[in-house]
Write a structure and sequence with these properties.
single chain; mainly alpha
Length: 113
Amino acid sequence: MFIRGSFLFLAGVIVMALVPWPGLAFLALLIGGLGTARYSIMQTSLVLTTVPPEMRSRVMGIVTVCIGTGPIGALAVGSLSDVFGPAPALLIMAGTGLIGLVLVRLRLGELGS
């Protein structure tokens, strides 16, 4: 659910960046928002359900630090947008995210074997 939500969000951003019609872009972002909701719900749920109780506060601290790095991504999109324009910047960032998710998913598959 966590990784699928991330894929859904990134796919929504890619579709939004590629379509020329505002209504379809809105629909793509709406669907991407559902992916974000799945991701957000699982973000802390995974920690609370899989980490031993004595480690939860430390791991939740790491989750909080990672959430706090979000503005770095916003700055990256803004910088790329200045150079390439908004749609290519979104495609670059979402494409990078998809590549990262594929690598993580492949690695998780190796761990499960």
